[in-house]
Amino acid sequence: MRISELCDVSGVPLPSIKYYLREGLLPPGERTAANQADYGQQHVQRLKLVRALLEVGGLPVATAQRVIQAIDDDELPLTYVFGVAQYAISDGRVFDEVESGAGLETVDDLVDERGWTVSADNPGRFGAARVLDALDSLGHGHIAEYLPQYAEAAETIARADLATLGHHDDRADMAENVVVGTVLGDTLIQSLRRLAQENESNRRYPVGENQ
Amino acid sequence: MRISELCDVSGVPLPSIKYYLREGLLPPGERTAANQADYGQQHVQRLKLVRALLEVGGLPVATAQRVIQAIDDDELPLTYVFGVAQYAISDGRVFDEVESGAGLETVDDLVDERGWTVSADNPGRFGAARVLDALDSLGHGHIAEYLPQYAEAAETIARADLATLGHHDDRADMAENVVVGTVLGDTLIQSLRRLAQENESNRRYPVGENQ
């Protein structure tokens, strides 16, 4: 199909499609004439992925680019696709390397207790350390006493995350599942936490009773 | 103490302190002369909170302002502080109201199955619905089969969230705990998920074996 048809079929405006082509988020169509190219079903599918990563996952364009490259790189083992997705969406803020401190020690102790095999540069190690240091400095260090419960929940989540991959036997599908599950999964978990919090809060502190 | 001393004690640069005062993130000091005010320990503590919300929690200034107002409003029941924290950090993107659709039905069924008591306008309801619709349109609808596991993890998290409140008996401390736990807790959970994912991925797909 021509680019105008791709636009109709996908519902994505033409300027956005052209932008994604320029930024390498969408592979070029097959050239059929000097200024004409042919697009297929894989372009429709890719557009859906790009929109979901940007709009539902909230990724910046440069980050979406990186994870899409990881999906397309057939040579990249799946474990590394996880790594790329994790690093990409952990951009900036709190996930930069932390060298030392009480928070990092607590995280490393937790990793030992749970028997987790993780690399020293996993961004989650730094993110968790920064949160623990901030909680401590704010006088809410007692929240760290619940780390085993939070870690247990993280294990339940990670087991489900990995189990979803069993539905595919094609590497490209699995790689896309890794990226989609990691990026949209964060939003899903945040959402379910909001619901469960309201339920638990209503149960413990019914409105109208003494606060 | 004078503002210059507050600057030294807290380590927050003077222009930032002045900005927070202007934006209402920091309450004014006690005026001691025409152009001089006195700041106390509560200002040092509040500066730590502001920095943690902005830098570790990644909140925009306007959002930090809203949750701080909720902490300071003694009349606001705790359940509502949860609500304000949830709504504030769920700003924009995927948490706007969704009117109908398969995703929303799936979320409502899940809420029924778990026996959760939640309001119809909980932002998590819309966020989860949007993620489920996006997964379905991407051909990864099978991820929804693991909703019970994700919901179980969310319950574990929410029980821990609420249990942390038991450490306080002062309303202001509890309200601050609610905000800090909700905002920094999201970052903590994301971080632990990264660690648990790498562990589970290493276990299931050891590098070097066939991918």
UniProtKB/TrEMBL annotation, chains A, B:
Gene3D superfamilies: 1.10.1660.10. Keywords: DNA-binding. Residues 1-70 form the HTH merR-type domain. Pfam families: MerR_1. SMART domains: HTH_MERR. The keyword DNA repair does not apply. InterPro entries: DNA-bd_dom_put_sf, MerR-type_HTH_dom, MerR_fam. Signal peptide: none annotated. This is MerR family transcriptional regulator. It comes from Antiquaquibacter soli.
